[in-house]
Every structure is written in structure tokens, then in C-alpha cells.
Amino acid sequence: MVKRKKIDKDVPSLLKDLESVSVFTRKTAVIDLAQKEAKESVPELLKLLKDREATLRGVSAWALGELGDKRACKALVLALKDMDVEVRRSAAQSLHKLADPGTLAALEDASVDSDKWVAEWAQKGAALISQEGGRKAKK
After folding, report:
1. Which residues, other chains included, contact 39 with Cβ-Cβ below 8 Å and sequence gap of 6+?
2. Cβ–Cβ under 8 Å, residues 122 and 107
3. What CA–CA distance (Å, rounded) separates 25 from 123?
4. Which candidate in 4, 9, 34, 87 could, as Cys together with 63 as Cys, close a disulfide (CB 3.0–4.6 Å)?
5. Do residues 103 and 129 lie in contact, with contact meaning Cβ atoms separated by under 8 Å?
6. Which domains does the chain have, with CATH numbers?
7. How far apart are CA 79 and CA 20, in angstroms?
């Protein structure tokens, strides 16, 4: 089990940090929002999937999976085609966690990604959806 750090900032402050010019500040805010299980941050995290910084796109894709909000599925499917491999990996892993039947075709397409980790997570996600009818993955 991963020990979570104590987060001193409240959610509104973390959401404000997402507007910082500092990539580090924004990345830290995304991680903290996920750890706080701040589902109200989903719309802002979805915007970050279009950020020019691949680091922010990747950590946002991860955070959306951690939050477990299926509103993220469509954007995560698009992120499976990102030029940055870390973004694709995070998107595939998050889609596996979300196990939404509407993402099956995209996961099947990504199962032949040139990156073995993207392909593996996509295969696992597609298998989970196919075999379990889209029930959420057990931890």
C-alpha cells in the first residue's frame, strides 16, 4: 500500500495552482487533487490533457483514472493517440481502471501500440471489459 502524503492545501487552492506558470506547481497540484479524491477537479484535468507540456498531459491522464470519473473516457481515448508515450501509457492505464464498455474499440486499437506498456495496458483493459462486462477492476 502506498502511503499518501498529507496535503496541506485545500481543493480551491490546488485548483488555483493549476493556473500557475510553473509546470512543477501544476504537476504537484494534479497529484494532490487525485490524492484528495477531488472529483470536482475533473473538468480542469480534462483541459490539461490538451496542455502543450507532455508531463502535465500524462499526470492528468493518470489522475483522471485515479478519480474514477467516467466523464474522462472520451478524452482519455483521444490521449491514446498522443505523440508522447508517457501520455499514452497513462491513458491506457486509466482506461483499464475505468473499464468503460464504450472504450473497448479504442483499447483494442491501442493493443498494438508500438510501446509495449501501452499495448499491455490496452490489452488488459479490453480483456477486462470483454470478460467482466465493464465492471470496475478490483484493486
Report:
1. 67, 69
2. yes
3. 34
4. 34
5. yes
6. 11-132 (1.25.10.10)
7. 23
Largest CA distance in the chain: 44
The pTM assigned to this predicted structure is 0.88
| Residue % of the chain over a pLDDT of 70 | 91
Q: How far is CA 122 from CA 27, 49, 53, 104, in A?
A: 25, 18, 23, 9
Cα 41 → chain centroid: 12
Task: Write down the pLDDT at residue 139.
Answer: 41
The DSSP symbol for 21 reads S
Phi-psi region of 133 (alpha: psi -120 to 50; beta: other; left: phi over 0): left
